[in-house]
Structures are given as C-alpha cells and as structure tokens.
Design goal:
The complex is a heterodimer of chains A (about 300) and B (about 500).
Chain A: H1 3-32, H2 40-58, H3 61-85, H4 90-109, H5 128-131, H6 135-139, H7 144-162, H8 164-174, H9 176-181, H10 186-212, H11 225-235, H12 240-262, H13 270-288, H14 291-297
Helix pairs in contact in A: 1-7, 1-10, 1-11, 1-12, 2-3, 2-4, 2-10, 2-11, 3-4, 3-10, 7-8, 7-12, 11-12, 11-13, 12-13
Chain B: E1 5-6, E2 9-10, E3 14-23, E4 26-36, E5 41-46, H1 52-60, E6 67-72, E7 75-77, H2 82-87, E8 90-93, H3 105-110, H4 122-135, H5 151-164, E9 169-173, H6 181-196, E10 200-205, H7 208-214, E11 217-222, E12 225-231, H8 237-245, E13 263-274, E14 277-288, E15 291-296, H9 303-310, E16 318-323, E17 326-327, H10 333-338, E18 341-344, H11 359-367, H12 375-388, H13 405-419, E19 426-430, H14 438-453, E20 457-461, H15 465-471, E21 474-479, E22 482-488, H16 494-501
Parallel strand pairs in B: 5-10, 5-11, 8-9, 9-10, 15-20, 15-21, 18-19, 19-20
Antiparallel strand pairs in B: 1-2, 3-4, 3-6, 6-7, 11-12, 13-14, 13-16, 16-17, 21-22
Helix pairs in contact in B: 11-12, 13-14
Classes of the chains: A mainly alpha (about 300), B alpha/beta (about 500).
C-alpha cells in the first residue's frame, strides 16, 4: 500500500482534531462549572451554516467565523438561562438545543444546499518545516486555527490549574455551596463559562465548514462530531491537554474508513467502520452514568445539578 | 488580652440586640440579646429548633434579622452576606463543611480570597497556609487533598480558612458532632490558642457535657428566646439542662436491673468485604436477654454495615449470625424478622417508617401477613401507645412525616418493641436519638431501658458516646470495621474508650 496515503490520513486526523479540540474544550469549560451542555452538535451545525451563509454573502472569512462564534454564544446563553436561571433539566435543555440547531440549520441552509463553500481557510506553508519528510506534511501543513487551538488548550489548562478564577471554576463544579459561602456568585461563574464554551463550539462549527467541508449539506456536515466531543470530555478526564491526544485518536478513527475505502480495502463494510467512534461514545456515556465511574473518571461532582442555596 | 474597656463600659466584640427572625410559621428568634467579649469562649446552648443556629447565622451575615441589630465593637453593622461578615472579621464554620474534596488544603483555604494575584504560585500559597496553621497549633500539610482527611482534620482546614481570611470572631456550629474524643480535645486546644491571641469563639451546641469544660460563659436558648446566661463556675449540667428544656431532666445512667439470661443474638467471626475493601473484620459478640450491648465509634467505621448485616439487609461474606441459636445469615430480611429480630434503622423516615403512610398503616406494614389489611385492631394498638408514650399527633391516621423527629422515633420504637410482639426478642437500634431534643432523648432512653427490663436483647449502635455510656451494660468500640475495645458498662474508662474510638489503643 502507498505510504503517502497513510501520511495523508494522519494529517487529516490532526486537521479534523481541530474541531474536536475546540468543541471539547468548550464542553470542558462548561462542565467544569457544573453545567452539562449536550447541545454541542446543534451548536456545531448552527456555527457551520452561519459561517457558510455569511461567507456566501460577504466573502469575508473573518466575519463568517465571527458570526459563528456569536451564534454559539447565543445558543449557549439560551442554555444558561434555561438551566441556571430557570433551573430546567440540563439534559433536556441540551437535547432541545440539538433538535433546534438541526432543524434551523436545515431550514436556513436550504437555499445553499449542495453549493460549494464560498471562502476557504487555507493551510499555511511553514517553509522548511513543511518540507521535512513524513513529519512535515503530518504536523506542519495545517491552517493557523489548528495551531491556535493547540495553544488554546494549553492556555485553558493553565487557566484551570494556575489562576484564581480557574480555582473558583473548579470549585464551582465540585462544591458550589462552598463557593457561594465565600461570597462568589455560582450563577455568574456558570453563566460565564457556559457562554465561553458556546463560543468555542460555534467557532468549531464555523472552522469545520470553511476548512474541511466542501459544500453545505445539513445531513453530512458535522456528522455527529458534537457527540464525539462530549465523549472526548470524559476521555480527557476534563483536562484540556488530554483532549488534544483524544481528539487526534478519534480524528484518526473518523478518517480511516475513507482511507480504506479509497484503497479499495474492504475488511469491514465502511458503514460499520464509520460507526466505531459513535460506539465508543455510547460506551463512554454509559460509563458516565454510574456514580462510581464518575468518581473514578474525576467528573465534576455537581455536574448537571442546579445550585439552590439551602435556606430553611 | 482580656476585655477592652471604653469609658468604664465593657466593649463587646460582637452583640445582638433584640434580634427577631421569622421563618414561615416559625418565630426562630424572639428579641434575642447576646454579647461576646474579646478573647472569650461563649457557648450558645439549646435543643434543636431552639434558635441557636439561626442566631449564629444572623451574627455571621447569612440571615438578615427582621428586627433588632448586630453590633461589632459597639457599632451597628448591617451584614448583607457571609462575605460581608468576614470583612468585619466574623466567620462561621458550618456543621457540614464547605470544602472541595478534590482540592488540596492550600487550594481550599485560599479559595474565594479576593486579594490573591491572578496567577497562583502553589508554593507561596502552601507556605502562607502552613504559617497560619502553625501559629494556632493546627498541624496540617497544605499539599494533602481534602478528600483524604478525617472529619477532625477537615474542621481544622475550615478553621485555618477562616483565620487566613482574617477572622477575629469564629462561630463554630456543632463543632464536636463528628469528632472522636481526642479530636475534641485537640479542638479545645486550638480554641484556647485562638482566645489567647485575642480572638473570640462562639460554640453552637446542644451537648451539655462538653460546653462546661471549654466555655467562659454559656447562653441557653429555648423556643427562640434566651432563657439564661451562666458564667463559668456557676454552670453545672443539671442547671443547664433545666434551662434548655424548662423542666427537670433525668439523664443519669440506666443500667440493667435484672440478671442477664440466655444469649439471644450471637455474631461469630462476622466479616464483610465489599468492592475489595474489608468493611467489617472478624466481629464476634453476643447479646443476652435483659441486656443492652452498646457499639460506640466515630461515624463511618462500619456501624451501618454491622447493623445491616444483623438486620439481614446485607449478607456477611464470612462468619455466622445466630438468633435464638438459629443460623440466620443470608436468609433474607423477612425471615430474619420472623426469627425474632426487630430493627430500628438510623434513617427513621424512609427506612424505618414509610413517611406518607399513617401511624396505623405503618403498624400494619409489619404486623399483618395476610392479604387483607386489618386496620381496626392496629388502630386500637396505635391509640394505646400514642397515649402511653405521649406521642404528639392530631390522630392515629396522621402521616408519619408530619410528626416531629422525636415523635416519629417513638412510633418506630413502639412498633419494633411492642407491636412486634413477644416473638421478637432481639432489638437492633441505630443512633436512636440523632437530631432529637433532650426531652425526646430522655423518652427514647426510657423506652430502651424498658425493652431491656422486659427481657429483650438490645444491640445499640450509636455515634453518640454519651448515649452508649448511659445505657449499655457492655460497651464495644468499633474502629475501621473491627472491635478494638470491649468493657463492661460500669467499668468504663471514658478516656480509654475515647482513644479506642480514634484508633489509638
């Protein structure tokens, strides 16, 4: 078999991982505050269609991406109001976001369905680095956002572990009553990080559309990547740096079926191979549902629990 | 530092003036006055619901008083939040600790401190925390994760947290509830170190015995009012108990008056291993008719597992349990009950009684084995013991969840002692007076004493050491699932029992 094909597969895996990392970090920030946002898939779809439509209308790449971030912020704000202010069930609110995002993106994307993307995020050429055999194309042939995302994961990790607001954020997910007793508003911490998370998810959708998608198609654009991001959060044990490794691994399993298909290798039907990341997701989510596994994995203790100050 | 004087009048560090606080349907504080001197240890004593916690919450800024004022150093302050209280040097350590298990001690202590730099340097913080801890004789390693600490150590973390944030007045809510006696002694040392540094401490407690040891002054509350304030030297437990309940209370030891007879309950090398952890290790004990065997120990040392094993809710992984000489392990709860066991679980509403069913229906639950419910005779029985035990309820058809803790406990005990009949001669009782007021404690103790006199074998598992010492003819101490100390009730050396509870024997 051609070794170039596999180099390309690895390169693609790392590229796809960009969306996964952005969405996963968004979810990590949200969940560390104690809010679970299952609406990732919906936000990704809305971010993608927004980037496409704005790009189509203005041909301005940066405006397109900015608007997808704003859409992410808007959707996360809805989630925050529902779950933090009104104390709605977080799972139900998250699922509602997915259904809403799927439906609305299909509706507003109808006029451009099948149209090829208007603007493109081009890969960078890093001079001699990109010319190194094997390593060059795998690591140094990506666009600026891939590298920014890696840096973002590092910043996020430092934020969580080395700063005062990061400390408060971690405490909010684990023991909101403690934070409240210190005079810090639990609702504020949760709002800020849910919305920040939504911004990253919106960007993940926009980037995916303009860097990886060729044409807008509601059914085929994100293809369940939002769900994978949610299981990646668990896989990464709520740590941003581990999310990079997990994202590359999942990116690889997403990419392999296409490579095998291209090489006319039919060990397994491609549908089965494409299913694998979702099977992994299923297992992760089942594991997460038992209290013991949650403890073992280090889930924020009060994840999914609305905070009510107990007065008599 | 002693007391500060200003123009001849004593300047109090903290005062409450005519504080009134209402909750829906309850007058929790009724024109309460309270004064705290600098460098003083002052206990707020009262039963559950007497209003002492409410007053403490008003003093620390958690609640706003409906009427009246809080004065700090003689000047009125309007505290809007615990944060604001802290800015005035007032901190409260709650009974349920407000700590993040997964954080280190240092992280917990500095959490919420507003004057920290954006970027945290772990080493600097750890040094600062260690310094504060050392100054007040609180040995702590700031790098340890709080999840690994005992209750006593967690409490020290809470105290260090308050001191680190500059607290001058510390309100401790039921601080000894979760501690073994040696840890209580350590807490008292810390309190003394703090008062020597000029800080004041308020103990909020319902335990009579210990407050006399540590307090300079005791203020007693009942039904939302202050019933008396007694200085050190004038305070004896009997007088304080009277102030608390408003009548004379008998809490003297009750011992068996009949000679113990045949063995009814026997545990032979019983062990329980769950999830690879040994919860109960090789416990052997026997309880004879007409005696109470007390199991003492700090919460979480296997009490719950032991009770559930005896009650048939869990099967032991090794050893044998005999009731009336018949082997009962692993035969199921119903058959264990038929073999003669009555069980009063720790969780009286939920496990013990069905909260939304009436007193009568709760009786029927364990009485009838037939298909149809016989409410008539159950009602007669229920009314008989409602009268006999002075259970306060509108009528026998009232749902048990509407009763107070003491009254629902009486219903449960009555069911397990009387209604179960003469067939049930083994009684397992877990923490029967947790959360009850002194009057109800007296009633429950009297009931257990009567059960003993009527020839039942009683196994009393309680985290309240005083309770075990008051009732038991034989005292066993449970530590990490093993019996580490065993002594006859009248030969108890409290210090030795205390050390055993802390695992130091």
């Amino acid at each position: 078999m051609n070794s170039n094909v596999w180099i390309l597969t690895f390169a693609d895996a790392i590229s796809i991982a960009t969306t996964l990392i952005l969405a996963t970090i968004g979810a990590i920030l949200t969940e560390r505050s104690g809010v679970i946002n299952l609406g990732v898939e919906g936000i990704l779809l809305m971010g993608a269609v927004t980037a496409f439509l704005v790009g189509d209308g203005t041909h301005n790449l940066w405006l397109a991406l900015f608007m997808s971030v704003l859409v992410g912020v808007a959707m996360a704000t809805v989630h925050a109001i529902l779950t933090i202010t009104l104390r709605a069930n977080q799972i139900v609110a998250g699922l509602a976001l997915v259904i809403f995002g799927t439906g609305l993106s299909q509706y507003i994307g109808k006029p451009v369905e099948g149209k090829s993307r208007p603007v493109t995020i081009e890969p960078m050429h890093l001079g001699k680095l990109s010319d190194i055999p094997v390593v060059g194309p795998i690591l140094f042939g990506h666009d600026i956002f891939t590298y920014l995302t890696w840096a973002g994961a590092l910043v996020c990790s430092l934020y969580l572990n080395r700063t005062r607001p990061g400390l408060v954020l971690r405490a909010t997910g684990d023991a909101p009553a403690t934070v409240d007793a210190q005079g810090v508003s639990v609702a504020m911490v949760r709002f800020v990080h849910t919305i920040l998370g939504g911004a990253l998810m919106g960007l993940a959708g926009g980037w995916f559309m303009l860097a990886r998608g060729t044409a807008w198609s509601q059914a085929a654009t994100t293809n369940g990547i939002g769900w994978i991001a949610l299981s990646l959060v668990v896989f990464a044990a709520w740590r941003p740096l581990r999310a990079i490794a997990g994202a590359v691994l999942f990116g690889f399993t997403l990419q392999v079926p296409y490579t095998l298909q291209g090489q006319q290798i039919n060990i397994l039907p491609p549908e089965i191979v494409q299913m694998l990341p979702f099977v992994a997701t299923l297992f992760v989510l089942v594991a997460l549902s038992t209290p013991r596994a949650r403890k073992l994995l280090g889930a924020p203790k009060m994840l999914g629990q609305p905070f009510v100050r107990d007065e008599r | 530092m002693g007391s500060h004087r200003l123009g001849g009048a004593t300047l109090f560090a903290l005062s409450a003036r005519q504080v009134t606080k209402r909750f829906p349907g309850v007058l929790a504080n009724d024109r309460v006055d309270f004064d705290l001197l600098p460098g003083e240890v002052h206990t707020l004593l009262g039963e559950n619901g007497a209003g002492k916690s409410t007053l403490a919450s008003v003093l620390c800024g958690l609640y706003k008083p409906d009427e009246g004022a809080v004065l700090r150093n003689g000047t009125q302050v309007r505290l809007t939040s615990p944060r604001h209280g802290l800015q005035n040097g007032i901190a409260m350590v709650h009974q349920h600790f407000r700590l993040v298990d997964r954080f280190t001690i240092a992280e917990n202590v500095v959490l919420g401190h507003r004057n920290l730099p954006f970027r945290l340097r772990a080493n600097d913080l750890e040094d600062q925390v260690a310094q504060v801890a050392e100054r007040f004789g609180l040995p702590l390693d700031p790098r340890v994760t709080v999840g690994e600490l005992s209750a006593g150590q967690r409490q020290r973390v809470e105290i260090v947290k308050a001191l680190y944030q500059g607290a001058e007045i510390l309100l401790l809510d039921e601080p000894t509830a979760l501690l073994a006696p040696p840890e209580v002694e350590k807490l008292f040392e810390t309190v003394r170190a703090m008062t020597q540094a000029g800080k004041s401490v308020v103990f909020v407690s319902h335990k009579l015995g210990e407050v006399v040891d540590i307090s300079d002054r005791v203020t007693v509350m009942r039904d939302g009012r202050v019933t008396g304030s007694v200085a050190r030297g004038e305070a004896d437990t009997r007088k304080l108990a009277e102030l608390m309940v408003g009548r004379d209370i008998d809490l003297s030891p009750r011992r068996s008056r009949v000679a113990a007879q045949e063995t009814l309950l026997q545990l032979d090398k019983v062990g329980l291993t769950k999830d690879g952890i040994e919860r109960i290790a090789n416990i052997s004990l026997s309880v004879r008719a007409g005696e109470i065997v007390g199991i003492a120990g700090v919460s979480g040392n296997g009490q719950r597992e032991l009770a559930e094993i005896v009650a048939g809710l869990q099967a032991p992984t090794s050893g044998e349990i005999l009731i009336n000489g018949a082997r009962v392990n692993g035969i199921g709860t119903r058959k264990v009950r038929e073999a003669g066991l009555a069980y009063v679980p720790e969780d009286r509403l939920g496990t013990g009684l069905a909260p939304s069913l009436s007193i009568v229906d709760n009786l029927v639950l364990t009485r009838d084995r037939g298909f149809l419910v016989d409410r008539k005779s159950a009602l007669v029985e229920a009314e008989a013991f409602i009268k006999q035990l002075e259970i306060k309820t509108p009528h026998a058809h009232t749902a048990t969840r509407k009763l107070s803790g003491g009254n629902s406990q009486k219903v449960l005990l009555a069911r397990e002692i009387f209604a179960a009949g003469d067939n049930s001669r083994v009684l397992v009782v877990c923490s029967p007076t947790r959360g009850l007021d002194v009057g109800a404690v007296e009633a429950v103790h009297k009931l257990l004493d009567e059960a003993r006199s009527s020839g039942k074998a009683v196994l009393l598992i309680s985290e309240d050491l005083d309770e075990v010492l008051t009732l038991a003819d034989k005292v066993l101490v449970l530590y990490r699932g093993s019996v580490v100390h065993e002594v006859a009730g009248h030969e108890v050396d409290v210090e030795a029992v205390g050390l055993a509870m802390a695992g130091l024997s």
